Amino acid sequence: MKDWIQHGVLVVGHGSRRAEANEDLREAARAICERGDFGLVEPAFLEIEHPNIAEGFARLVQRGARNITVHPYFLSPGRHTRGDIPVEVSAAASRYPGISYRITEPLSAHSLVIEASVERIFESLDRAKDVQSLGLSQYDAANVAAGRMPALPGTVYLVGAGPGDPGLLTVKAVDLLESCDTVVYDYLVNPEVLAHVQSTTERIYVGKVGGGRHTPQRQINHLLIQHARAGKRVVRLKGGDPFLFGRGAEEAQALVEAGVRFEVVPGVSSALAVPAYAGIPLTHRGMSSSVAVITGARGGDGAYESGAFEHLASADTLVVLMGVTHLREIANDLVNSGRSAETPAAVIRWGTYNGQQTVTGTLGTIALEAERAGMRAPAVIIIGEVVQLRERLNWFEQNLGVVDEEELEATLAVAC
Asked: Which of 130, 172, 181, 208 is catalytic?
């Protein structure tokens, strides 16, 4: 605002040996400048820290201020606002004839400050009531006070563990893993994620491996209900996102029918993360503006449903999960549905792990290329022109060392 060009504001705090306290005043001065649209604002300190009042006043004059408002920032009215500050400001102003100044009333008794204080008190009381009513431990209560909500007794949390890289785990997922009593986890959960679980937590493996061990869904549902009814804090840890081909909705329905409280904690889906780690953006201006995500295997028996891709052939980018076993049929169906056999395609195995492996080709060649490379599950298939961008954007695999595939699978087997 042009009207304020010659007006300066000096925000005065006490000054402390603690750097964070002094930075709080500087941040307040920046916020006052922005919110008030003042052109000239400087912080100053009564003690210890610099600039002091004389130095801050001088800076404003040097910057062009001709009238200055001195604002005591949460200082005591008696000792500072009506004692030290007037004396020091008067001495500073005496060096600059023609410069006018005024000192504001202190904030301490302002009605809005009182209202804000009352609000904070009620927030604290409400949080304390929550802690008491939920029967949380002292450890959990400390987490609540710090703004972190631990797992609650008698509750099931359907948590997405992400695609593999433990760095992609959400903050909320970590909080729940650190505070749960029972964790029920799948085959594709990276064992490093389980490092967040306490040593006293019960770990139950219920993974499903194609052609291998299999835990019936009904049994998994029963486990979740049983442990929650026993007052346990239960984390159901699922690879990727629980609601994207993760059967999370089926488990949620079972919990609803059993009257068990639950929450869903989304995870980073392999449909999004794995292509990114392979240097393949799912959308790109002028190349892809639509994405379709589909499973390549029928739920239950894992068979391929012929014709399932007919209505998706027109999508710019196709992401196929759980489809590497039926890759040849998928490619043929897409070509028969009108997709060019020259459409770029990629298969990414163990995406986001250090053992990530990627094979590229076209719809006409990708099945053969994948067979030659020995690509098997778990793998994500990407079909579309965006696959071409991998040649320039392949950031992850270029920085990887060689990781033995048997070693990677043995590492996962340890958690099972």
From this structure: 208
The pLDDT tens digits for 154-175 are: 999 999 999 999 999 999 999 9
Percent of the chain residues topping a pLDDT of 90:
61
> 35: exposed, middle or buried (C-beta count within 10 Å: 0-12, 13-18, 19+)?
exposed
Q: Indicate the angle between helix axes 171-179 and 138-145, nearest 10 degrees.
A: 160
pTM higher than 0.85, yes or no? Answer: no
Q: Check whether residue 67 and residue 173 sit in a common domain.
A: no
Q: Is residue 234 part of a domain?
A: yes
Could you confirm whether 175 is annotated as catalytic?
Answer: no
Q: Are residues 173 and 262 in the same domain?
A: yes
Q: What residue type is 176 in one-letter code?
A: L
Task: Look at residue 342 and tell me if it is in a domain.
Answer: yes
Per the structure, the count of domains in the chain is 3
At 300, which CATH number?
A: 3.30.950.10
95 shares its domain with 210: no
Please provide the DSSP assignment of 227-267 as one string: HHHTT-EEEEEESB-TTSSS-HHHHHHHHHHHT-EEEEE--
CATH of the domain at 13: 3.40.50.1400
Is residue 237 within 8 Å of residue 184, measured between CB atoms? yes
Cβ atoms of 255 and 156 closer than 8 Å = yes
- Cα 351 to Cα 190, 220, 285: the distances in Å are 12, 26, 25
84 is catalytic: no
Q: What is the domain range of residue 304?
A: 272-406
Exactly one of 186, 232, 238, 333 is catalytic; which is it? 186
In a domain, 412, yes or no: no
Written as six digits, the tokens of 70 are 């001195």
pLDDT band at 73 (very low <50, low <70, confident <90, very high): confident
